[in-house]
Amino acid sequence: MTKYTVPRGTRDILPAEVALWQFVEQKAREIFRLYNFREIRTPIFEHTELFLRGIGENTDIISKEMYNFQDRKGRSLTLRPEGTASVVRAYLESNLHKQEALSKLWYQGPMFRYERPQAGRYRQFHQMGCEVLGAVSAYQDTEVIALAQHFFETIGLRGLEVHINSVGCPICRPVIKERLKSFLGDNLNNLCEDCRKRFETNPLRILDCKNPECNEFFVMLPDISDVLCAECKEHYHDVQNYLNIMRIKYMVNPRLVRGLDYYTKTVFEVISSHLGAQNAVCGGGRYDNLIQELGGPSIPAVGFAFGLERAVLIMQNQKVTVPGRTPYLLLLPLGENAGNRAAIFANKLRRKNIPLEIDISGRGLSAKLKTANKLGVRYVYILGEDELVDKCGQLKDMRDGRQKKIRFDKFLAEMEKKYKKDNRS
């Protein structure tokens, strides 16, 4: 018999782990709402040209990692490798830029990159992110950093660091690249093949290399902030000033460049010590030219995204617990007639929004109580043949073991009262 397995770089998310995902998604929605972000949903695939122009042809994503395919009419389409380009396309196509001076949007969903699978990194992965379109002030850079930090604290992550840098703008970027090439040139033969290719096409990306041997040559990297143009220097100073005012701890990291060509000025990452070499759980920055590059007016923007796989992995490593989603009640009918009565109760209680399970198997009471313990329910309601005659079941509190009779005609109201009380405490 053929045994089917998931494709390499993908994975199943089983119910026990889904509880963590739902908790992360719920908290993200709450935090995004606090900062006045609205959700936007875009297609899972786009025209390939959108990513070629938006991300940059010299990036690893474009050259190595995209999932491209042709539709039946020969048009080139791509499974989205990231979310920002799609959000900007939707922002322009729907004329949001003509309707509001500042748009604050958030998104979530699966992304696709042909990468080498490793801890927290898959070929199908899931991202949540936000974009502030029309973001002129350095305050908006700091606000999305504050949002990211606020969110990760809310889901219980510890030991995270905020790293920031400025990668300049089209005015000072050529000077930055020449300084890097001058510094790296003497050691070019000692760098890996990818770094040697990037030396001519995209020298900034060399700094993002994870090869330990290459990293040895970056120790004496010159500070590029002193060759930033006046506007970039002022913006970078303002970002740090806002971070200091808001008492957000951060580290200036002159090697931080991010992997996408559209970034300008501020870039940042939230770093975890629980992810190995690929240690960024969140990354983002400013992209003042992307909207114009994709056919719109000159509108500055800033945003970030985080991977759900990585966030959940850190939660598991740090043993973060989340509120349980177990049934509140387990109905235990003993016999066919009792099963019919329990089915009626189950239908009515669920319509009162009380989560429950019903065990209509032919097993004995002892086996069914073992199921109750395994599920972690608060109460069980036992209905046997004698209870049917008396129209009165046995309600057992699984926390303290106490048991009492509850009449059928009082049972629904009693459970509704208990559930509301327990969910207020």
Features:
16 strands; Rossmann fold; eight-stranded mixed β-sheet; 16 helices; 40% helix; BirA Bifunctional Protein, domain 2; alpha+beta
Named at the architecture level, the CATH assignment of the largest domain is 2-Layer Sandwich
Our Rg estimate from Cα atoms comes to 28 Å
Strand element count:
16
- Shape verdict: elongated
Give the number of helices: 16
Which ranges are low-confidence, i.e. pLDDT below 50, for 5 or more consecutive residues? none
Using the coordinates shown, work out and report the CATH topology of the largest domain: BirA Bifunctional Protein, domain 2
Helix content: 40-55%
Total domain count = 2
Brief overview:
This protein has 425 residues and is α+β, with helices and mostly antiparallel strands. Helix content is 40%, strand content 21%.
